[in-house]
Amino acid sequence: MLFNTLRSKQGLDVPRTAGICSLLLAVACGASTGSATSDSTGHTPSAPPLTSPNGHDWTQFGVDQARSGVSEAPTGIGATALSTMQRQQISLDGTVDASPIYLHNVQVGGAARDVFFVTTTYGKTIAIDASDGTILWRFTPAEYSQWAGSYRITNATPIADPDRTAIYAASPDGHVQKLAVADGHQIWSTAITLLPTREKIASPLSFSRGRVIAATGGYIGDAPPYQGHVAILDAASGQLLHVWNSLCSDRAGLIDPSSCRESDSAIWGRAGVVIDSTTGRILVATGNAPWDGQTSWGDAVLVLDPDATRLVANYTPSNTETLNQSDADLGSTSPALLDATHVLQGGKDGTLRLLDLGTLSGDAPHKGGEVGVVPTPSGRALFTAPAVWRRPNGTWIFVADGGGTAAWTFAGGLTKVWSNDNAGTSPVVAGGQLFVYDPGGVLRVYDPETGQVLAALECGSGHWNSPIVADGRIALPEGNANSHRTTGVLNIWRLP
Q1: Over 60: is that where the pLDDT of 32 sits?
Q2: Is 220 inside any structural domain?
C-alpha cells in the first residue's frame, strides 16, 4: 500500500521491483521522473542483466574532450563478427537526433548494469539497459508539455561526470541539469540563456576541469534576437561561473538578446565546444553574423582561455561578408584538432580549411591566412564532426557529408587517401574500424585505411544521429528532429 501511495503522490514511474528503500531514496532526492521495467517487446528480466566489469565507457559525443571521434578501447567486435550481430529496436517516447553515451558496470536501481543514456529532442533524458533494452529511468523537464511538438528542440548529447555517478543533459527551456545515474533524479538545474524561445542548445555538452561547458545557437529560421555564447558551469553546484558572448563580446555574463545590437553568430556545430586537453583552451566556430574583429565575431573560429573570459586566438575567412550574406555558416561544423596548433574547419560552403593557430594567436583580428584548402567529400555543406585518428603511420582524418565519405592523412598538409559517394553523419573509429551512419538508413563499417566496406547494417532513416561502439555493442538512434515527433527508436546491435 505504501509503495503504491508513494508512486501516485510523487508522479514516479519506477519499477515495482525496486523496493521501498530505493523508492524512498528517489522521493527524498526529488526525482521528477521514473523508469519502466519492460523493453520494447514487453519482456521483463527475471534477474539483473550481465555487465562488463572490465568494460570501457563512452562518456561524451566524440569520445573525448577534443571530440576526436576515436576510441582506442577494444570493442570485442571483429570484422567477421559484424555480419552476425543481432539488432534490437527500442521504442522511445522521443526522437534522439544526437548520439548516445555509455557507462559500464554502474549502479542503477540497486543493481550493477551497463547503461546507454540519451536525450530526446524535447529534453527527456532516458537510461536504457545495454544488455536487454529495458528503460531504467526517465527524466522529464517540469514544463515539457509547453514545448513538446513545437519548434523548440535540442540536439544536444549528454555527458557523464568523470566520477560516473551523474550525467549532464540539456533541454529546450535553456537549462542544463545534473542527473543522478542511479535513478535519474535532478541534482541541480541552471539556465544558460535569458531567452530560450530564441536561443537553442544544439551542440553536445562538454566537461573540463570540474566544469560543464555549453553553447547556444538559434532555431531553424534564425529568428532574432539571439547570440551564440559559451557558458561555464560549476559541476558540483551548477553555479554559472562565466559567459563569453560572440556578439557584444565586450559584455560578460548572460545578456538580454534584444539589448545587443547584433543577432545570430550561432555556436551549433555537431561537436560543439572542443577542448584542448593539454591547455584547457576552448575552441568554437560561429555561424552567420557580422564580424568586425572587435566585439562581433560571426563566421569565425575562436579560441578562448579555459575560463572563457578572454580570446587567445581567432580566424575568419577573407570572404566573411559573403558567407554572412549567403547563409554559408563557417560554424556549421566545429574545429577539429589535428595537433598542438593545427585545426581543420569545415563550413556550409563545402570547404575544409587547414589552419595554424600559432599564426592566428592573440585577440587582434585575423582575416584569412589558411595553410590549405580542400573541398568536402562531395563538395556539399558540412554539418558533421570529422574523426581524427592518430596512428604510428600518421594522423588520419575521416569526413562525411550529404554526398560522400573520405579519408585524408595529415603531415603538415592534407593528402586524400580514399573517398566514395556514401553519405554520412559524424564518423567514429572504434576497435580499429570506421563506423559511418548514412541517414538514408544504413550503418556502414569500413576498413579505415582502405575504405573497404566490411559490413552494412540495416536501420531506419535519420538526420544528425551518430553511433557509439563499446563492449560488444553498437548503439545508434534514428529519426529527424525536424519532424517534431515525440517518438523515436534506438537501435542496439549485439554479438550473438
Answers
A1: no
A2: yes
